[in-house]
Specification:
heterodimer, A: mainly alpha, B: mainly beta, Methylamine Dehydrogenase, Chain H, 3 helices, 28 strands, about 5% helix, WD40/YVTN_repeat-like_dom_sf (chain B)
Chain lengths: ~60, ~350
């Protein structure tokens, strides 16, 4: 019986974590979409300013 | 890995900051001196002299060209990082408690202290990123906080909002264009001073630390409290780690506030919590006094803390730090990989 109780408790903890993880990932997704709509380049680049020279890729044959 | 101890300051550290590349750490202290250090080996790279009082705050612009500082000499100053040259001094009626650049580095804010006859205010200046340019004397915005003095403030994503934490434990959201107060909410316990406010990398959410022994994550647009981290000591600082979903909290009770001065009693440890699950997962000991500030390497490879004991401790994360995952995270990652 104790084991059964413990399993129920563990299940509740895991379900709660799954809920928190899902909720967080949804929040992050909505924020990323909002930043994309707003054209927030620096924010979408993890806060790093995009410099001219970073964008130029030299191709070597 | 053994932490690197940066000893060079003669008094308590007040703020520490990594530059955007994470190779340099800037530190300010009550000893009036700004220091720059190489983060990988702790070698001192230089000092910035000029302030005439305790320093409270430092920030570096996103290109690592300009450094802003503020302190008890009632000035906010702008320096060239590379040469240590003082580029600009703005004078105020009271001390500067916090400075912060916007994400694009084109704006700089300063939070002034409240003192008899002067309310706490937030000043915003436009910054010319050219070190040869003349910086403006005039602020473009001034926010007067009549209800409760601001202690910390910063710019949200796209500098849409200025978010401020207050002495009374509340958080305000201002329109960063015209300074209008959009919203104020009691995030922390009433009259529990907010000691720190740090951003996520995309500035859509932020963490506040408070004397009420908690840190909280709130959304920048809704100001909704998303996460709460409960500690057992008053907090001075809280940081959000990139790469891994953790937060780092620092605090501790000053010696004069506790009956014994043992490190354990004072709880002078950096505490790691899982950002999403809000559970404590580890502590790092080392300081002999309260942690006044914690800062995370922008690439998430380490962190540093500035203590009341006058030291900066730099830590590089080891493999265990990166490998640690909750089972539900592991499962989710596996599901993603199988898609």
């Amino acid at each position: 019986q104790d084991q059964a109780k413990k399993n129920t408790a563990n299940k509740a903890v895991i379900e709660e974590r799954q809920r928190m993880l899902t909720e967080w990932l949804e929040f992050r997704k909505s924020m990323r979409e909002m930043l994309e709509e707003e054209g927030a380049e620096i924010e979408l680049n993890n806060g790093k300013v995009i410099r001219e020279e970073d964008g130029e890729v030299e191709e070597i044959e | 890995m053994r932490p690197i101890l940066l000893s060079g300051h003669e008094r308590a550290l007040t703020q520490v900051k990594y530059n955007p590349d994470g190779d340099i750490i800037f530190s300010v202290s009550k000893d009036h001196v700004v220091c720059a250090w190489y983060s990988h080996n702790g070698e001192r790279l230089g000092t910035y002299h000029g302030h005439q009082g305790a320093l409270w705050t430092v920030d570096v612009d996103p290109t690592s060209t300009l450094l802003a500082t503020g302190g008890a000499d009632n000035t906010m100053r702008l320096w060239e990082v590379k040469s240590g040259k003082l580029l600009k001094t703005w004078d105020f009626a009271t001390s500067i408690k916090r400075v912060e650049f916007s994400a694009d580095g084109k704006q700089l804010l300063g939070v002034t202290e409240k003192r008899s006859g002067h309310l706490g205010m937030i000043y915003v200046y436009e910054i010319n990123p050219d070190v040869e340019a003349q910086q403006s004397d005039e602020h473009v915005l001034r926010i007067v906080c009549e209800d409760s003095k601001p202690t910390v403030a910063g710019f949200s994503y796209l500098a849409h909002y200025i978010i401020a934490g207050h002495e009374d434990g509340s958080v305000s959201q201002f329109d960063a264009k015209n300074g209008e107060l959009l919203y104020n909410t009691q995030v922390h316990e009433a009259d529990a001073l907010i000691t720190d406010l740090q951003w996520s990398q995309d500035r859509t959410y932020f963490i506040t630390a408070s004397k009420d022994k908690t840190a909280k994550i709130s959304a920048a647009d809704s100001l909704e409290v998303l996460k709460t981290y409960v500690a057992d000591t008053p907090l001075n600082s809280a940081a959000i780690t990139p790469v891994k979903d953790y937060v780092i909290l620092g605090g501790g009770q000053a010696a004069m506030d506790v009956t014994t001065t043992s490190a354990r009693q004072g709880k002078f440890e950096a505490r790691f919590y899982h950002k999403i699950f809000m559970e404590e997962i580890g502590r790092v000991r080392g300081h002999f006094g309260p942690l006044n500030y914690v800062a995370v390497h922008p690439q998430g490879t380490g962190y540093c803390s500035g203590g009341e004991d006058g030291y900066v401790r730099v830590h590089h994360f080891d493999k265990g730090y990166f490998d640690f995952m909750y089972e539900v995270e592991r499962e989710r990652a596996q599901e993603q990989a199988n898609l």
